[in-house]
Request: fold
Amino acid sequence: MFALGRVSAVVKCVMAIITLVATQGCGTLPNGHGWGQDVTFLPGWERVRDAAVGAAKAPDVWLPTAAALALQINDWDEEVSEWAVKSTPLFGDREDADDASGYLRTASQVAYVTTAFLTPSGDDDEKWAENKARGFAVGLSAIGATYGMTEATKSIVDRTRPDGSDDRSFFSGHASNSAVTCKMAGRNIEYLAMPAWGKTAFKVGFSALSFTAGWARVEAAKHYPSDVLVGMAVGNFLGAFFNDAFLGIDPKDPKGVTIQPTEGGLMLGFNGTF
Reply:
């Protein structure tokens, strides 16, 4: 059973580890600039296009979308929801699941803010503050865009929640907010001074945090699984898109799935580092 009282302890432990292994926000990125220094809100069509395509090709965007579509077969969405609410395998009961979703969403936000502060933004105090402000402006824009898209979609779709409380089920705001902040936290981890295995471990942990925040809403009977999966896809897309389009830091290597025609059909491939 999930223990709500342990959430804050876990968050503090994770952030303490980041602090121990990372720089304290000083120094510069490999290109000699500080995090946030190259922010632009007029990046040009080519960069916007590349950021959108790269974000859409990422597995954490298209896989949840595909899973949400698959759940529409034979009422699987409703059946999984009923099972989760009845058995509450992770959180024990609906009330604990509802409380946990809020704590976990907050933990996702803490992860983003903490990792953003720890990124190297230069040694000059004045420049450091300016760079941080510019970088946070991009992050807050991503969060704002996610909130706006979530609210607009809820108003248009009018899907009734599993518990029948209102018609704002699609898609999950907890899932989209946790996903966008965890996605950006994972990007921030790339700029910290820690070994590759540590970066991978934190990014996997952030993804798990995002998923768990959304799943808590399913066990609380506030959302169907597809609501959570679509919310995750939207948050992950916007987090990656805003980071790549406006932060001004070129990604080390594009990650995603490629589909190429061959003589005998199609070839599916994946490019990226692990």
In short: The chain has one domain: 23-254+263-271. Residues 38 and 215 are 36 Å apart (CA to CA). Residues 23-254+263-271 form a domain with the Vanadium-containing Chloroperoxidase; domain 1 fold (CATH 1.20.144). The longest strand covers residues 256-262.
